[in-house]
Amino acid sequence: MWLIVGLGNPGETYARTRHNIGFRVVAELAQRHQLEFSQKRANAQIAEGVIAGQRVALALPQTYMNLSGQAVVGLRQWYKINPATELLVVYDDVDLPFGVLRLRERGSAGTHNGMRSIIALLGSQVFPRLRIGIDRPPPAWDLANYVLGRFTPEQEAQLPDIIQKAADALDLVVREGIVVAMNRINAPLPRSKREQKRLLEAPDLSSDSNTSNTSDE
User: Among residues 55, 60, 56, 78, which one has the least CA distance to residue 5?
Assistant: First the structure.
């Protein structure tokens, strides 16, 4: 089976923020397959069903971002999954340009507190994840304020297409497997080779010491 977890903060206050794009993508996947978030387990809203012949559980943690690992560990124990092959986490990434998708089998938390919580409580960074680029904040901006802020009107207009493409990527993982999906999703960025290398490699090599520790981030 697949446990697919979208990261975000619960409540209407955060619903349209940059940090909640993981919620929006997993909600789109549920909607297209007519799965309802009718259950609550391990402090997460759950939609269970079948996609492409495989059992899936879609989860939206209600712990607030910094405690996402609590929900993920609880769900791993409930569903008895192997995180390395059956867990897929969807989240926003400031180290990728807006709208760029990156699918990986493993990696560090980078500057993301939700991923830091998951990796710490799982005791491993070996699990698939779909990163969705939201761009870096302008110079001198506080990172927490940026990710908890809303997209610009121009970006919001592009989000429906980006969310659809991200949900397509999740569908592809379930149908074809992570390796096939990575080969199709991770197309080269339209930038110089040096810049491409920086964007693709830096998040996995970065230190976890430069992230904010606000309660909701």
Answer: 60
What is the full DSSP assignment across 7-25? ----SGGGTTBGGGHHHHH
Q: How far is C-alpha 44 from the chain's CA centre?
A: 15
Handedness of CA 90, 51, 70, 179 (dihedral sign): negative
pLDDT digits (tens, 9 = 90+) for 165-216: 999 999 999 999 999 999 999 976 555 545 555 555 544 433 333 333 334 5
Query: Going from the N-terminus, what domains does the chain have, and what CATH number goes with each?
Result: 2-210 (3.40.50.1470)
Mean pLDDT across the chain: 90
Residue with tokens 């400031």: 94
**Which residues are known catalytic residues?**
19
Q: Give CA–CA dist 1/48, Å, rounded.
A: 11
Tokens encoding 129: 């994840």
Give the count of beta carbons closer than 10 Å to the beta carbon of residue 202: 12
Task: Give the β-pairing of 39-41 and 2-6.
Answer: unpaired
Q: What is the pTM of this model?
A: 0.87
Identify the pLDDT of residue 214. 38
Q: How does pLDDT run across 76-88, given as a tens digit for each residue?
A: 999 999 999 999 9
> Do the beta carbons of residue 100 and residue 133 sit within 8 Å?
yes
